[in-house]
Amino acid sequence: MLKDSLEAALDSTLKVSDIAYVKNQADEYTFRKVVTTSRFTSVLILLDTKLNPDTVFFGEGFQMLSQMTGTFANPVNIGRCMDDLSPYSHYPVEDYRTVYNMLLLKKESMWTLLGFTSCNKYTGFFRIFNDGTLHVCMSLEGQLFNSGDIINTETFVIMEGTDKQQLLEKFAKLITKHHPPLKIKERPCTWCSWYAYYDHVRDSDIIENADKSGELDFIDYIQIDDGYESHMGDWLEYSDSFSKGLDDCIAKIAEKGKRPSIWVAPFIVSGESDIVKNHSDWLATDMDGNLIPAGYLTYGGWRDLPWYVLDFSNDEVVNHIHNIFNFFVKKLRIRYFKLDACYWGAIKGYLFRGNISRIENYRRGIKAILDAIGDDAILSGCNAPIWPSLGLFHTMRISDDTERNHYRTAQKAKETFNRLWMNNHLWINDPDALCIKDLDGQHVEANDVHLQIATVLICGGVVTVGDRLTDYSKEDQALLRRIKDYTYYVKEVTADEDYSTFTLNLKSRKERIKIYINWTEANQTILIGQNSVNFMNNEPLSSEYILPPTDTLIVIEH
């Protein structure tokens, strides 16, 4: 069995590397390394072995936008922004590919999972070589060590089984022992401003949609997503587009019986911000103590550049972030926060003055925010480092941003399906906003609407809409209400291996949902059970349905 050979290789590698280990009753490994200056690097190789180059694998990413599959000989990118390629990596390595946190291997009918079940201080990763070589590693970047220091690593497990879903659920349970999930009292249904207005949103746009939201009883929150701040980092200094500040918008939202939600990127500050100009000692530096923007180390960001990163080993920074969120909660009565650009709080290459790791810097920042907002608020992560976020968020974005085109819609669907196992275990999954209406420069086809809706239903997490609310017809409103209702009833999801057929069992309902996705360029014939209706229009379906290329059918079976 592969598990046995991997464990033997692990034992052999650790002996060569002078790394001790303890194995607990759950078969989790904890590693210990004594630092000697002559034989120490910032990366520990825990396992070095050789597999068949044709071994099929799936590998997780360090951050939201990265996933990989294929074989060792031929890796295939799933995500748009891979951790080990440009623009996120300025120095891609040609000899191997890198995946993080969890690696799934398949041999015939057997699945083998190698994964890290904790992430408090360091992060685990895997090197995938074309010839079949596999390295399991632990990254220690962000800290300086002295001879004699003792490093206790994160926990690691090797598991196997014939049922991939059961294997992932068992893995999730091990993770939650180290990182208990936050309790959430509700699953928010939200209108998000970003996908209709992006950073050009004005206070009048928010108010117009808040006015319209009064007709849409399924929407709970109105989310102001970027555009309100003068610069990244100056969250309480407002842009010209919000000349009256946020108070007026918040009041208009409340008048319609809705609740406000706000977007913040807490780890980054623009070069034009007050913090860079007056508090440069709050910022992380390179390993030589020089102040450098994030773009020197990784992808520099998408607007208001350059970005710098806050150093949460500094108590003044912790107090600063605490005060910002305390203002949002107590003055503006905001209880739902979307945190974006989270990845930058844990990027490789920065040194923190308190000699903490990059993972510790990130987790300190989120914990400061949680302390400020209280137990009854909702914290949602976006563009986040996945494992460093464990136990710190109520909801988590698990796929790329929505765009109104087929390529992005299909990409997002696959990313979401690969992370279904996280839902209701690590947090509530967020598959991003439904966008079913056209926008200037973006046109959404019917097949992409079907796949977007299917993805949200299968995800069984939170529901967000991103179109201008004034664009919705009465039929659109009824459809969105039905999507929300059914999504929150999803109890159990099963899927075939290529994600072409899904069965959704529902709580407190006698019916179930079947979803068929045609990933091909040819028609497919779908056999339909009796008493079945099309989810999109509630019309009865005949016993056979011709599913067009790249289209999706959502069936309610009574």
From TrEMBL:
Keywords: Glycosidase, Hydrolase. GO terms for biological process: carbohydrate catabolic process. It comes from the Bacteria. InterPro entries: Aldolase_TIM, Alpha-glycosidase_related, GH, Glyco_hydro_36. The keyword rRNA processing does not apply. One of its GO terms (molecular function) is alpha-galactosidase activity. The keyword Mitochondrion does not apply. This is Alpha-galactosidase. It comes from Succinivibrio dextrinosolvens. The lineage of its organism: Bacteria, Pseudomonadati, Pseudomonadota, Gammaproteobacteria, Aeromonadales.
